[in-house]
C-alpha cells in the first residue's frame, strides 16, 4: 500500500511532523514500512516549460523545439513523437541532474545546440511499471485545471505536480486488509498524532433519488459468493483533462492511468475507499438487465458482469471497451460489488495478473462500503466540475452484517495486558478511529469501526488497545505459570499396558487432528460434552471446534484408507477431549473394519463383528480389574443416523457411563465404501476411577474344580446383568460364571426369546467338593431360576 505526504496533507496539518516521525508512527502501529522514496531528491532541478515552436530535423525522427521558460527561450532537441506546440512540459535545464544520475550539459545534435532536455516520466523517477507503452517513449505533458500555467513557466515544476512528494510503501498484514483503503491509514495517523481530519468528503452533498430501474440477476450457483450488489447513476458535464497531480498520484500508487478522466477517478476512489467501481456508459446498454455469471472468455471460465450475453466486465479487469465510459460519456452507471475472496482468488489465478481491483476483491474488506465510495466518487467528479446530477446508492443485495459491539470489563483488559488503564485513558486511544466507547462503571462497550471486520472478540479488542498504546510502552513481566499436581503414574502404566495390548492384537496407533467442524462436534457429541470450545479465528471452516469424541476421527481415517483401497483396518487412538470450564477427558477409541483375520493359503478369514470388539473391550476391563458383573450394555434406540439403530450399546458400570460400542449404519458404510465397521469408545478417566488398583494375588485352590452347564430361555428384554445376580444368590462355592453359547431359532425368535448356555464353576479352598455338595448348590441355582419364571431347557 502506498501513502504520500502530499495526499495526507490534504486532510491533516503536517507542518510540525517530519517524514521520519510518520515512518516511526506507521511501524509503531503495526504497518511495516518496506521502503520510502523522496521524489524531491531524485532530480536536482526541473522547470515548467511551454513549447512555442516545434520543427522536424530532416532525415531524422528528431525535432528542434523552442521552449519558453519565463522570459527565456531555450532550443532543445527531442526525439519524442508526441511533442508539439502549446504543450506544457517538464524541462531539465543545463547542469541539472536527473534521477538516473545524468547531469545535463549543452550538446550539439545534428547541427543544433540542445540546451537541456524535455523529460519523460521514467527519466525523472516515476515507476516504469506504472506507465503505458506510450508514456514510456514519449514526453510528459503537464496539465492543471486550476493553475494558470502560462504565468508559471520557468518556475520549478515539482510543487506544481507533486514531484517533491515523499512516499511510504507499507506492508499490510492479512488482518488489516481494511487499509487497502488509504482513508483507513489516514485515520490511524490522525489518531497517532492527535490531529483532526478535515476536507474528508465534505464538499458534494446534492444527491438525488435513484430512479434507474436496473436489475442484476445472480447465477444461483454463485449466490453464496456475492455479498453486496449496489449501484448509482450520474449525469455528466463536458469532460476535462485529469490534473497532473492526480495523474502522478495514481502512477505512484502503481496504477496505469487510462486517459479517460472518469475511469481514472474511479481508480482513485477505489484506492481511497477500498471499494471498486465498475463504471458503465449507460447509453451503451440495450437495457438495464444485467447478470453475474461464469462465462467463456479467452478460453477461460471467468466470473463476469453480462448484458444480453455480451460481457460488460470480467470482474477484476477494466470494463470492456464497448461498454466503457469515456470522455464523451454523458450518463454513467456505477456498479459496486463485494465478493467472497475465495472465488476472486481463483479468478486472479485464472487471469494471472494483479490490478487495483483484483487486489481489493481478493482480500477480506468491509462489503458495505458503497455509500462511502459513492460519496467519494461524487467529490472527485465535482472537483473537476463534471457532475450534472448524482444519485443516491440503490442496494440490490446486502447479506453481510458484522458484529461490531463488544462488552469487556476494565479489569479483564488490565489483567490481560499487565496495565493499569483507566476508562478515560482507553477512550483517548481511539479518538479518530471511528470507535464508539461507552462506559458503565468499570464495564466498557466498544462499537468498532465497521471497516474493521478483523475484530472478532474481547481478545482482539485488548490487542487493539496494546497496539495503539504501543507494545514497547507496556512493561515486560515474566509469565506466571501455574503448575498442576502430578497425578499418580499408575494410570499411565495402565495406559501403556493397554497400548501394548492393542498393538499386540495388530491394531495401528493413530494420531488425528483435535479440531473439527462445529456441526460434526455437535452431531457426534455422544458423551454430552458441555460448553464446546470454538476458535475465534479458525484457519478453516473444517477446523473450528475442539472435537467431542475420538470415534469420528477414526471413522474419517478409515474412510480415507478405504478410498485408497486399504480396507482391512484395525485402528485405535488414545487422546484428550476438551471443553470450557477446565474440562479434560482421556478417551480410548478403537475400530475394526473388513477382515480382521485372513489366511490366504487356507482361504480362511474372520470379518469384523460386534462380539470381537466386545471381547477386546472386556479384556481391557479385566486389565483394569473391573467386576464384570457390574457391567451393563444398553441398546440406545435414539442414536444418530450414522450409527446402526440396533447393533449398538451404551456401556455403564454401576450406572455410570463408561462408553459406547456400535456398528456404523450400513447405508453410511456403503456410501463411504466401508465394509462392516465396529467402533468402541470409552472414557479412560471414568475407567480409572472404577478400576480396582489394589491388586491382590488370589489364593489358588489345590482341589479339582467342577463345572455345570445350564441352558435357559431368556426374554430379550431381560438384562443378563440383572438376572445373573439373582440366580447366584445364596449359592456357595461358585468361582466363575460365564455365557458359553447363545442360540436363537424361529420359534424362540417369534416369542422374543433367546437361549443362553451358562457355565458355573464350583470349587473350595479347604476340601475337595463332593458330588452331593455340588448338586445341592445346583438345586439352589435352579430354584432361583424358576423363581424368576425363567424356563430351563
From TrEMBL:
GO MF entry, a single one: ATP binding
Catalytic activity, EC: 6.1.1.20
Entries under SUPFAM superfamilies matching the protein: Anticodon-binding domain of PheRS, Class II aaRS and biotin synthetases, Nucleic acid-binding proteins, PheT/TilS domain, Putative DNA-binding domain
Superkingdom, natural source: Bacteria
Locations listed in the record: Cytoplasm
Keywords for this protein: Aminoacyl-tRNA synthetase, ATP-binding, Cytoplasm, Ligase, Magnesium, Metal-binding, Nucleotide-binding, Protein biosynthesis, RNA-binding, tRNA-binding
Bilayer-spanning residue ranges: none
Cofactor binding: number and manner: Binds 2 magnesium ions per tetramer.
Record bears the keyword Ligase: yes
TRNA-binding domain residues: 40-158
GO terms for biological process, alphabetical: phenylalanyl-tRNA aminoacylation
Gene Ontology CC entries for this record: phenylalanine-tRNA ligase complex
Pfam short name (any one): B5
Catalytic activity, as annotated: tRNA(Phe) + L-phenylalanine + ATP = L-phenylalanyl-tRNA(Phe) + AMP + diphosphate + H(+)
Quaternary structure and interacting proteins, as annotated: Tetramer of two alpha and two beta subunits.
Family, as annotated: Belongs to the phenylalanyl-tRNA synthetase beta subunit family. Type 1 subfamily.
Name the UniProt record assigns to this protein: Phenylalanine--tRNA ligase beta subunit
Amino acid at each position: 500500500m502506498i501513502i504520500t505526504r502530499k495526499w495526507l496533507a490534504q486532510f491533516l496539518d503536517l507542518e510540525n511532523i517530519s517524514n521520519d516521525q510518520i515512518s516511526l508512527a506507521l511501524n509503531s502501529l503495526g504497518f511495516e514500512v518496506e521502503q520510502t522514496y523522496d521524489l524531491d531528491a531524485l532530480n536536482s532541478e526541473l522547470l515548467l516549460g511551454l513549447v512555442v515552436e516545434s520543427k522536424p530535423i530532416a532525415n531524422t525522427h528528431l525535432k528542434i523545439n523552442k521552449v519558453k521558460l519565463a522570459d527565456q527561450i531555450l532550443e532543445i532537441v527531442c526525439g519524442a513523437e508526441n511533442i508539439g506546440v502549446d504543450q506544457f512540459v517538464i524541462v531539465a535545464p543545463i547542469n541539472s541532474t536527473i534521477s538516473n544520475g545524468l547531469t545535463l550539459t549543452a550538446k550539439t545534435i545534428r547541427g543544433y545546440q540542445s540546451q537541456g532536455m524535455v523529460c519523460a516520466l521514467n527519466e525523472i523517477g516515476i515507476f516504469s511499471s506504472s506507465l503505458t507503452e506510450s508514456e514510456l517513449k514519449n514526453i510528459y505533458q503537464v496539465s492543471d485545471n486550476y493553475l494558470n500555467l502560462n504565468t508559471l513557466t520557468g518556475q520549478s515544476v515539482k510543487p506544481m505536480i507533486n514531484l517533491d512528494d515523499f512516499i511510504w510503501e507499507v506492508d499490510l498484514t492479512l488482518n488489516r486488509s481494511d487499509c487497502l483503503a488509504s482513508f483507513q491509514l489516514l485515520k490511524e495517523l490522525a489518531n497517532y498524532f492527535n490531529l483532526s481530519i478535515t476536507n474528508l468528503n465534505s464538499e458534494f452533498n446534492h444527491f438525488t433519488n435513484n430512479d434507474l430501474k436496473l436489475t442484476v440477476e445472480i447465477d444461483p450457483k454463485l449466490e453464496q459468493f456475492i455479498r453486496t450488489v449496489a449501484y448509482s447513476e450520474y449525469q455528466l458535464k463536458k469532460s476535462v483533462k485529469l490534473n497532473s497531480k492526480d495523474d502522478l498520484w495514481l502512477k505512484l500508487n502503481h496504477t496505469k492511468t487510462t486517459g479517460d478522466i472518469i475511469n481514472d477517478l474511479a481508480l482513485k476512489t477505489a484506492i481511497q475507499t477500498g471499494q471498486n467501481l465498475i463504471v458503465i456508459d449507460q447509453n451503451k446498454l440495450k437495457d438495464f438487465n444485467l447478470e453475474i455469471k461464469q462465462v467463456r472468455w479467452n478460453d477461460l471460465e471467468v466470473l463476469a458482469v453480462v448484458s444480453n450475453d455480451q460481457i460488460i466486465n470480467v470482474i477484476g479487469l477494466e470494463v470492456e471497451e464497448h461498454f466503457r465510459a469515456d470522455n464523451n460519456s454523458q450518463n454513467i452507471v456505477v456498479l459496486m460489488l463485494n465478493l467472497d475472496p475465495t472465488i476472486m482468488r481463483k479468478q486472479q489465478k485464472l487471469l494471472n495478473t494483479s490490478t487495483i481491483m483484483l487486489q481489493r476483491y481478493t482480500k477480506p474488506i468491509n462489503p458495505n462500503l458503497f455509500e462511502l465510495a459513492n460519496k467519494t466518487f461524487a467529490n472527485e467528479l465535482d472537483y473537476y466540475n463534471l457532475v450534472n446530477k448524482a444519485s443516491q446508492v440503490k442496494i440490490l443485495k446486502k447479506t453481510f452484517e458484522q458484529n461490531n459491539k463488544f462488552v469487556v470489563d476494565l479489569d479483564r483488559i488490565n489483567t490481560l495486558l499487565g496495565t493499569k488503564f483507566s476508562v478515560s485513558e482507553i477512550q483517548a486511544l481511539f479518538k479518530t478511529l471511528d470507535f464508539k466507547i461507552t462506559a458503565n462503571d468499570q464495564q466498557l462497550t466498544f462499537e468498532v469501526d465497521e471497516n474493521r471486520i478483523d475484530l472478532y472478540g474481547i481478545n482482539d479488542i485488548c490487542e487493539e488497545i496494546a497496539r495503539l498504546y504501543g507494545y514497547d510502552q507496556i512493561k515486560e513481566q515474566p509469565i506466571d505459570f501455574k503448575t498442576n499436581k502430578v497425578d499418580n503414574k499408575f494410570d499411565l502404566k495402565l495406559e501403556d499396558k493397554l497400548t501394548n495390548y492393542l498393538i499386540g492384537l495388530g491394531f495401528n496407533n493413530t494420531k488425528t487432528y483435535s479440531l473439527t467442524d462445529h456441526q460434526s462436534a455437535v452431531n457426534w457429541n455422544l458423551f454430552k460434552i458441555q460448553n464446546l470450545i470454538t476458535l475465534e479465528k479458525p484457519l478453516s471452516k473444517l477446523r473450528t471446534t475442539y472435537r467431542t469424541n475420538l470415534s469420528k476421527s477414526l471413522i474419517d481415517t478409515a474412510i480415507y484408507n478405504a478410498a485408497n483401497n486399504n480396507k482391512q483396518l484395525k485402528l485405535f487412538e488414545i487422546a484428550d477431549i476438551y471443553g470450557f470450564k477446565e474440562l479434560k477427558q482421556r478417551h480410548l477409541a478403537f475400530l475394526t473394519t473388513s477382515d480382521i483375520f485372513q489366511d490366504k493359503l487356507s482361504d480362511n478369514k474372520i470379518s469384523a463383528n460386534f462380539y470381537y470388539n466386545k471381547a477386546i473391550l472386556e479384556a481391557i476391563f479385566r486389565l483394569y480389574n473391573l467386576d464384570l458383573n457390574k457391567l451393563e450394555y444398553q441398546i440406545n434406540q435414539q442414536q444418530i443416523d450414522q450409527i446402526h439403530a440396533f447393533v449398538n450399546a451404551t456401556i455403564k458400570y454401576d450406572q455410570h457411563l463408561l462408553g459406547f460400542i456400535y456398528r456404523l449404519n450400513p447405508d453410511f458404510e456403503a456410501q463411504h465404501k466401508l465394509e462392516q465397521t465396529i467402533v468402541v469408545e470409552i472414557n479412560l478417566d471414568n475407567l480409572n476411577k472404577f478400576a480396582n488398583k489394589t491388586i491382590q494375588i488370589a489364593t489358588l485352590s489345590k482341589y479339582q474344580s467342577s463345572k455345570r452347564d445350564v441352558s435357559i430361555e431368556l426374554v430379550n428384554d431381560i438384562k443378563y446383568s440383572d438376572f445373573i445376580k439373582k440366580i447366584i444368590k445364596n449359592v456357595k462355592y461358585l468361582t466363575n460364571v460365564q455365557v458359553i453359547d447363545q442360540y436363537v431359532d424361529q420359534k424362540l425368535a417369534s416369542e422374543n426369546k433367546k437361549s443362553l448356555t451358562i457355565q458355573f464353576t464350583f470349587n473350595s479352598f479347604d476340601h475337595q467338593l463332593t458330588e452331593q455338595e455340588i448338586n445341592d448348590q445346583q438345586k439352589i441355582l435352579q430354584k432361583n431360576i424358576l423363581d424368576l419364571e425363567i424356563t430351563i431347557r
